[in-house]
Design a protein that fits this description.
Elements (H helix, E strand, L loop, with lengths): L1 E5 L4 E8 L2 E9 L1 H5 L6 H23 L8 E7 L3 H18 L3 E5 H7 L3 E2 L4 E2 L7 E6 L4 E8 L2 E7 L5 H11 L6 H9 L24 H13 L7 H30 L3 E5 L6 H14 L2 E4 L9 H13 L4 E2 L19
Parallel strand pairs: 1-4, 4-5, 8-11, 11-12
Antiparallel strand pairs: 1-2, 2-3, 5-13, 6-7, 8-9, 9-10
Helix pairs in contact: 2-3, 4-10, 5-6, 5-7, 5-8, 6-8, 8-9
């Protein structure tokens, strides 16, 4: 039995895992708190974590029907993320592990996303038996990267974002046209009723020979376009068309580079995770393209795309069983922890 905590940004989450099964996954979101400011305010996020951690952890234990004495390990996100927010959760995990006399595991947030597509259900549980080598797209507000997962817990980063991540681009474009925070999901809903070919926006780095991403130029292109077409965002259908066109540019770039990497490496499986994987066009179009190419596709469950402790706990339990990821109780959180530093290739 393992308790996992996640506080890397603006979700306070606790989960209980037993033999690969998610017995509980409680998430307290701070979206409404930060909406007033149009983005996450680190100081406010940390305050809310400190306020919510104990109630959320208690709720997870209660939902799972276990007591703290049933736990054999405690895990928490150690990095990357907001420094003070990470410290809130990781320090709490260390304290709990010390009191209970059990190991404390520090988990890499992106590595947890990397294996979240292998969780399915109901009940939600790790489907490790179905695991196969894959090219994995991790795409969120802060990060966009491609990873070659050669074997279970063995991976190599192929490319990452050079500036704005895909989710950040969605949010910044949403701000430009006056959509409420968080803008990405709102833009996605409007795009469903728009024409993706209405406006032509660049597909950044799509045809470059490397696996890195860059979306700052797309944001600039949209800003210049809006300056040349003042008032366009006030026309409801023109706004829907703009959203659809921007979404198409981002999604085509993500899918194109992912599938090209899979072909180059001879991999027959593709996975995707992270908050932007909730985007309807990305899920739909990636499924279509993979089917056309005869590739297996694993998408993280929508409830596990955004930050959550369940994916942290599933990975922690797997690592614990293999003697990996055990942290000293006096270890520090690592806000800038890179996935490259964890590259495990046998």
């Amino acid at each position: 039995m393992l308790l996992a905590l996640e506080t890397s940004c603006d979700e306070t989450s606790a989960a209980v895992i037993h033999d690969g099964v998610i017995l509980a996954n409680v998430v307290s979101s701070q979206i409404r708190l930060h909406a007033e400011y149009g983005g996450v305010v680190p100081e406010l996020a940390t305050r809310e974590h400190l306020r919510n951690l104990l109630p959320v952890a208690r709720a997870a234990l209660r939902q799972a029907g276990v007591t703290p004495r049933d736990l054999r390990a405690v895990a928490a996100t150690r990095g990357p993320g907001l420094p003070a927010a990470l410290r809130a959760g990781f320090t709490a995990a260390q304290a709990a592990a010390y009191v209970l006399g059990v190991p404390c595991l520090g988990i890499h947030h992106h590595e947890a996303h990397l294996y979240s597509p292998w969780i399915s259900g109901p009940p939600l549980r790790a489907d490790w038996g179905a695991f196969q080598p894959n090219v994995s797209l991790i795409v969120s507000g802060g990060h966009t990267m491609l990873v070659h997962v050669r074997a279970e817990l063995e991976h190599m980063v192929l490319g990452s974002t050079l500036d704005d991540a895909a989710g950040e681009a969605f949010d910044k474009v949403s701000k430009l046209v006056g959509l409420p925070y968080p803008g990405g999901p709102v833009l996605d809903r409007l795009a469903e009723e728009g024409r993706a070919d209405a406006y032509d926006f660049p597909r950044p780095l799509l045809y470059e020979p490397h696996d890195d991403f860059s979306f700052s130029g797309l944001k600039t292109s949209v800003r210049v376009f809006l300056q040349k077409h003042p008032g366009l965002a006030d026309d409801p259908q023109a706004l829907r068309n703009l959203c659809a066109s921007v979404r198409a540019a981002i999604v085509e770039t993500l899918i194109g580079k992912t599938l090209r990497a899979a072909r180059r490496l001879g991999v027959r499986c593709v996975t995707a995770s992270g908050g932007v994987t909730c985007n309807r066009a990305l899920r739909r179009d990636l499924a279509t393209k993979c089917a056309q190419l005869g590739l297996t596709l694993r998408l993280a469950e929508p409830s596990l795309c955004t930050d959550n402790a369940a994916m942290v706990g599933i990975l922690a339990e797997r690592q614990f069983g293999r003697g990996l990821g055990i942290s000293e109780r006096d270890a520090e959180p690592e806000p800038g922890w890179s996935l490259e530093s964890l590259q495990r290739v046998g």
